[in-house]
Design brief:
Helix content is 78%, strand content 0%. The protein has 306 residues and is mainly alpha-helical. α4 runs antiparallel to α5. The longest helix is centred in the N-terminal third of the chain and has 29 residues. The radius of gyration is 19 Å and the shape is globular. The N and C termini lie close together (8 Å). The relative contact order is 0.23.
Length: 306
């Protein structure tokens, strides 16, 4: 259990880097950055599979997915990576950032509720759940900089955007639960193998995402800061995607989905730390309060699942 908790927290720390990546690669569209991240993830996964093929010639066996396993990797990559992000981009386009971000921020709560083990009492889960909800409420009220509270309520497509954000919420919640169940049903598949298979599917999805909504390659290459853009895509493709997926798979194999859902909150905590460290600022009191509530919620959930 301890290894699973540490793996889940480490995955959250790596996911949190995605929130500061756009600031480092300023001037590039979020779709281009995300497509670059997913393509980099796919390239790392393909490289690892090729390395495994070379090792298999030396007598080290390498497992390749069956057609059914490859299909599972493909549809789960859509739920947790490319499809989810494309929906989020569309939601922000139609409804602005604040409300979709708040809707997506409730993912840990839904995963905790839907992933509760049969033997765990609701009374034991309630403290961590309530602390997390209270933290989300404080984060929603906290100041987020100039213009952060301005949504797109006047947009003709506002409610369509809210609906799309709800679908994105369903996508990632389903990914967290189904991915955990798949790994627990297939203990013979190692966390790294599954991350590589998901990575190949995600890399293909990243190419399709760029073709559908990305900027022309020549335009991307001509922009100032292309070196930083490539560096960020490689860094978050390797760390926030490939390595984080391995760590999340380890947590999903060893922990109940409800506890994994609680650990997703660590992504928000680390994102806050990274953002304020990059800006050289201190969080506002409400943000401090939210961080404390999130931390207490994680500790309460760990205690409930012992």
């Amino acid at each position: 259990m301890l290894a699973g908790i540490l793996a889940g927290l480490a995955a959250g720390a790596l996911w949190g880097l995605v929130f500061v990546a756009p600031r480092i690669a300023a001037g590039f569209a979020s779709v281009d950055l995300t497509a670059g991240r997913f393509v980099a993830y796919g390239a790392v996964a393909v490289g690892m599979l090729l390395w495994g093929a070379l090792r298999s010639r030396a007598g080290v066996p390498q497992r390749l997915p069956t057609a059914r396993q490859a299909g599972a990797a493909l549809w789960l990559s859509v739920l947790g990576f490319t499809g989810y992000y494309l929906l989020l981009v569309l939601a922000i386009r139609d409804a602005g950032a604040p409300l979709p971000a708040l809707i997506i921020g409730t993912i840990p709560v839904w995963v905790m509720v839907l992933g509760k083990p049969h033997g765990l009492r609701w009374g034991a889960l309630a403290p961590g759940l309530l602390l997390t909800v209270a933290g989300i409420v404080l984060m929603a009220w906290a100041p987020h900089g100039e213009g952060a509270g301005q949504g797109a309520a006047g947009s003709p497509h506002f409610w369509r955007g809210i609906g799309i954000a709800g679908v994105a919420l369903v996508f990632w919640t389903a990914f967290a639960i189904f991915n955990a169940r798949w790994l627990q049903r297939h203990p013979e598949v190692r966390a790294t193998e599954w991350a590589n298979w998901l990575g190949v599917a995600t890399g293909l999805g990243g190419v399709l995402l760029w073709l559908a909504a990305g900027s022309p390659l020549a335009e991307i290459a001509a922009r100032p800061g292309i070196g930083a853009f490539i560096g960020v895509c490689v860094a978050i493709g390797f760390g926030s995607s490939w390595l984080a997926t391995i760590l999340w798979n380890i947590a999903s194999q060893r922990l109940p989905a409800s506890l994994c859902g609680q650990l997703i909150v660590s992504e928000t905590l680390f994102a806050i730390v990274y953002s304020f460290a990059l800006e050289g600022l201190w969080p506002a009191p409400l943000q401090w309060g939210a961080c404390v509530l999130f931390t207490l919620g994680i500790l309460a959930s760990i205690n409930a699942h012992r």
